Amino acid sequence: MNSSIKDASHPSIVYYDGDYPSRNQTEYPENFDEVVTYQGIADDVDKYIQLTAQYGKKVLELCCGTGRISIPLINQDCVVTAVDASAAILKQFRRKVGSIPFPKSENLSIVKQDVTQLSLDTRDFDVVICGFNSLLCIADFNLQLQTLRNAADHLRPHGLLALDIWNPLAVNLYGDIKPEPFFTRKNPHNGNTYTRFAATGPMTINQVQSVYGWYDEFKKDGTVTRQSYHMEWRLIFRYEIQLMLERAGFTLKAIYGGNHNEPLTSDSLKMFIEAEKV
Ligand SMILES: C[S@@+](CC[C@H](N)C(=O)[O-])C[C@H]1O[C@@H](n2cnc3c(N)ncnc32)[C@H](O)[C@@H]1O
């Protein structure tokens, strides 16, 4: 799906480009922070910080979004290169950079690139991070594999790739009957309440699922406006990711069932993966 990523027109980027109110109003701060807090998984940041203490502080973050992970790493004295394909998202990231005090702010480089075609001058990063399901947003097996190869190409020998992705067994692979309310918020621009409805479609033979739904905004005159959204992700199973990593030039070090080194079980919401470059 991301083979010909064209910035803001790409469905995954439209989907993740903030949330509903920011679609046409890019001044609204992006909501990854809120979404991961809502899902109870915001402590992934602590895990990434621990890994940089272990492997080294020269960090590349792939699919960085608005800096939810990169900014805390900078505050822990890491030197971070953060890459995303969405200009709108990176604009919001740059706005947040103001919160980083000088001279730490000098340790951050923000790069707009498609990670499936990643090419940076630096090739000796200690750690590459691809957090919060970002690999799944590249909804094509070969492009996911190419992204892992690109990560290996940019790491020093024995450097670490750390990523987290859904455990497919925790996802409804048959699809939801209909979108259900996911959250309700206030539109910061006009004070109206809006509800996001979300659903996944059935998984295809290529392990791709639609993620779709709509936003209903309740206007003061009693009417409702509906705006639909749609993206796709490609789920990856436990031994599949191991084989993909091996094929991309990594040795799997660990797969946990969460951010706290929990054992991976069929009930685990996600897989937290650590792999070393061979
Ligand atoms: C689920 S968000 C995760 C953001 C961030 N890593 C976090 O944890 O808050 C996925 C991000 O991947 C980016 N993305 C999707 N496909 C991409 C690609 N091919 N190259 C670079 N970035 C991409 C989107 O723009 C979005 O910011």
Automatic annotation (TrEMBL):
Keywords: Methyltransferase, S-adenosyl-L-methionine, Transferase
InterPro entries found in the cross-reference section: Methyltransf_25 (IPR041698), SAM-dependent_MTases_sf (IPR029063)
Stretches assigned to the Methyltransferase domain: 59-159
CDD domains: AdoMet_MTases
GO MF annotations, alphabetized: methyltransferase activity
GO annotation terms (biological process): methylation
Protein name, entry field: Methyltransferase domain-containing protein
Organism: Ohtaekwangia koreensis
